[in-house]
């Protein structure tokens, strides 16, 4: 009997939590980038839930579909923390969970400047089967990912990744540059990479009417990213690079979507792959636990 | 300079530390005027943007909460349009107010047009 009461209480609390969450769903206002970071932080107390999907078919390999589930939380106005869980499915090779990442971004300067720096630190614990292509570093290339899941899941990688994010908002345009340094903690050399991007909403002023598919909710951008070798072999040799036009749609009080098509710029790169992100933002998520004040 | 010193002194005497941010606004920015001032369409667009970006913290009725300031027309009347534009652009990250520089300047001015109503 006691158990029934407890269960019903738990059920009631869960239902109340969900009921409270539904009306305050969901909003996201981002540049349309899928690789490059800007200096925009998650708003304090907000939680963004996103699903990032990458799919490609490498030459000589099987088509894969990688999913990265992202929980992004605004701890403060100057600190954003994120947890990623990733998994992938490859034709004829099955579906595997490939690991997790914990990422933190800090804004050291509290005001807005011409160039706004953000410090990024990430710890990842993934298997060699991870195909999220979240960033390209070192000598990453499509040939690294031709090995079957049976073999790559045996390889475990614990890595620290740091980024210096530089970003500017000028007259509605965003310009962002990321400098990446990543180290496999198993005594591997530092690997380097970069990402640069530019974007702009299709309309700068908002219209007075509510709308979904209007220009103010759409943004377009262009990203370029790639590897820069390692500490011992720094440079462009044997690295891969991509150019990726991207579009974003933000539905007011609804989800946001981003889509990009990455075109490989040299023989080490995938010729083409797709990225798609769907995100929901739960406004003032922490109030669900603190109570309204 | 004198104006800033007086405002700082007044804020300290009132014990109103929240107003200290205005001392950091450059005079050139503080004197900016809203290009959308008096335009009904901009007020409506600003109301829409306010509901989307500001209401989750400041509330639909703009009265704030125990740790989020009210931004009613009476409260914002004490600031110049330029000062409001500055705080919207820069935020007050230490106090939890995010920067809204990723919104185009036009949309920030539309929000201010609404806040002035």
Question: What would you say about this model in short?
Answer:
The complex is a heterodimer of chains A (293) and B (117). Chain A is mainly beta and 293 residues long.
Can you describe what's shown?
The complex is a heterodimer of chains A (293) and B (117). By secondary structure, chain A is mainly beta. Chain A has helices at 2-24, 149-152, 287-290; strands at residues 47-56, 64-76, 79-90, 94-106, 116-127, 156-170, 173-184, 191-201, 218-230, 241-250, 256-264, 272-282. Residues 1-29 of chain A have low confidence and may be disordered. Chain B is mainly α and 117 residues long. In chain B, helix 3 (40-58) crosses helix 6 (105-115). Chain B is globular and about 35 Å long. Chain A binds chain B through residues 24, 27, 29-31, 38, 40-41, 43-46, 74, 76-78, 107, 110-112, 169, 171-172, 174, 201, 204-210, 216, 252-253, 283-284, 292-293, and chain B through 24, 40-42, 44-46, 48-49, 52-53, 56-57, 65-67, 89-99, 101-107, 110.
Distance between the termini of chain B: 30 Å
Measured by residues with Cβ under 8 Å of the partner chain's Cβ, the largest interface is:
A-B, 39 and 35 residues
- Tell me what the CATH architecture of chain A is: Beta Barrel
Report Rg of chain A. Answer: 20 Å
Largest sheet: number of strands, sense, barrel closure of chain B: none
Largest sheet of chain A: 12 strands, antiparallel, barrel
- Multimerization status: heterodimer
The portion of residues assigned to helices of chain B is 40-55%
User: Could you give the order of strands across the largest sheet of chain A?
Assistant: 1-2-3-4-5-6-7-8-9-10-11-12
Annotated CATH topology of chain A: Porin
Average pLDDT of chain B, to the nearest integer? 86
Mean of the pLDDT scores of chain A?
89
Total count of domains of chain B: 1
Low-confidence stretches of chain A: 1-29
The coarse silhouette of chain B is globular
- For this structure, what is the CATH homologous superfamily of chain A? monomeric porin ompg
| CATH topology descriptor of chain B | Cytochrome Bc1 Complex, Chain D, domain 2
Annotated CATH homologous superfamily of chain B: Cytochrome c-like domain
Strand content of chain A: over 45%
């Amino acid at each position: 009997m006691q158990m029934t009461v407890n269960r019903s209480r738990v059920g009631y609390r869960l239902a109340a939590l969900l009921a409270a969450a539904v009306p305050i769903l969901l909003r996201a206002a981002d540049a349309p980038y899928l690789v490059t970071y800007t200096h925009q932080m998650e708003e304090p107390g907000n939680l963004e839930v996103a699903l990032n999907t990458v799919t490609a078919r490498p030459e000589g390999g099987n088509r894969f579909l990688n999913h990265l589930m992202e929980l992004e939380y605004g701890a403060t106005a100057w600190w954003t923390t994120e947890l990623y869980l990733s998994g992938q499915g490859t034709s004829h090779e099955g579906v595997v969970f490939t690991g997790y990442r914990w990422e933190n971004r800090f804004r050291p300067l509290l005001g807005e400047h011409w160039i706004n720096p953000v410090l990024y630190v990430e710890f990842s614990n993934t298997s060699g089967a991870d195909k999220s292509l979240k960033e390209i570093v070192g000598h990453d290339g499509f040939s690294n990912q031709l090995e079957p899941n049976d073999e790559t899941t045996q390889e475990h990688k614990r890595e620290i990744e740091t980024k210096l994010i530089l970003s500017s908002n000028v007259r509605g345009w965003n310009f962002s540059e990321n400098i990446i340094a990543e180290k496999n903690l198993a005594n591997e050399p530092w690997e380097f990479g970069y990402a640069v991007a530019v974007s702009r909403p299709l309309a700068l002023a908002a219209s007075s009417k509510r709308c979904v598919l209007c220009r103010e909710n759409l943004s377009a951008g262009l990203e370029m990213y790639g590897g820069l070798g390692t500490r011992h072999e720094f440079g462009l040799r044997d690295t891969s690079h991509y150019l990726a036009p991207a579009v974003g749609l933000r539905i007011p009080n609804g989800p946001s979507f981003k889509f990009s098509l990455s075109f490989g710029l040299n023989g080490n790169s995938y010729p083409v792959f797709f990225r798609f992100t769907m995100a929901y933002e739960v406004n003032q998520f922490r109030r669900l636990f603190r109570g309204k004040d | 300079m004198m104006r800033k010193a007086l405002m700082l002194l007044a804020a300290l005497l009132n014990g109103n530390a929240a107003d200290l941010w205005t001392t950091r606004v450059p005079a050139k920015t503080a004197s900016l005027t809203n290009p959308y001032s008096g335009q009904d369409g901009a007020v409506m667009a600003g109301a829409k943007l306010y509901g989307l970006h500001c209401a989750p913290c400041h509330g639909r009725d703009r009265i704030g909460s125990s740790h989020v300031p009210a931004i009613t027309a009476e409260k914002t009347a004490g600031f110049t349009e330029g000062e409001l534009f500055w705080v919207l652009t820069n935020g007050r990250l230490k106090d939890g107010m995010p920067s809204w520089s990723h919104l185009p300047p036009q949309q920030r001015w539309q929000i201010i047009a609404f806040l002035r109503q």
